[in-house]
What does this fold into?
Amino acid sequence: MSEAVVDSHAPVQQPAESPVTPESWGKLGMWVFLAGDAMSFGGLLAGYGAMRASSPDWPNPLDALGIELTAFMTFLLIVSSFTMVKALSAAKHSDLPNFRKYLLLTIVGGTVFLGLQAYEWTHLTDIGMTMSDNPWGAPLFGTTFYILTGFHGCHVFGGVVYLTCVLFAGMNGKFLGENSSPVEIVGLYWHFVDLVWILVFTFVYLL
Amino acid sequence: MANAHAAHADHPEPNYLAIMAALTVLTILELMVPPLVSDKLTAGSLLVILAVAKALLVALYFMHLRFERTTLSVIALTPMAICVFLIIMLLPDLTSTTRTYTPAEPTAVSEPADH
It folds into this structure.
């Protein structure tokens, strides 16, 4: 700290290392953001549960929603989480080609997920399921479905944009070795999106 | 800083392929629950247990929570605790009292008084 005060032309440095995440403050910041984001999803899921429990004519999701496609989407997110940790591992080992390859595969996984969700929504609106109505029962079924999967889809979209930015910024090896923290932070976000989908898939599609 | 970083990054890399395989197997198990288990409560409990197991695998190994300082797990667990509190607060809304509530017939009580 004291040297930084003496040399006013020294590059701006973090004042001290975080006691929780010594690698970077950004990582702590991401965790705090994710804790807040988890509250958003927690609130939505709890509200969904409350509405569902107090609606006697709630449709059976297995009759209304296509499980096969969604199961594949779940698998896709799991695989993209795997490619994400491989990208981070490659970055830590200063393996630029594999870092690029695995990060690109993660982005492709997220993009295909979004495409499949768009396809699913189109199909569901075609058969009459909207925000305010559906052919099977309680209108809130459609409302909660679109709000929950839509809010998650927005996170996937945000994640794809974020991952793409990290890929372009790190294209020339900026995030290799000791500097891989930004890759780890985007990875945390991406795994969180996967984790939330695991819960949404269970509570909205299977239960 | 550099030392702390090196010490921190020291943890052994988990077998990510095995974690992915476990997540896939748990997903397949989840898909088998609704057709095989007819009892709603049993099926629901099984699905929640499987989902929590999957979420834990992602958080502990993919998000490296297992290798981080405990304080970080406290940050991660805080929203879970608050959500449990939220659910407990919502429970009174789901009792039969609210579900069978019907507005009372308008009575003559509120008739304007004669002046």
Q: What stands out?
A: Helices of chain A lie at 2-6, 25-53, 61-64, 67-92, 96-126, 140-169, 181-206. Chain A touches chain B through 51 residues (CB under 8 Å). The CA atoms of residues 58 and 141 of chain A lie 7 Å apart. The two ends of chain A are 55 Å apart (CA to CA).
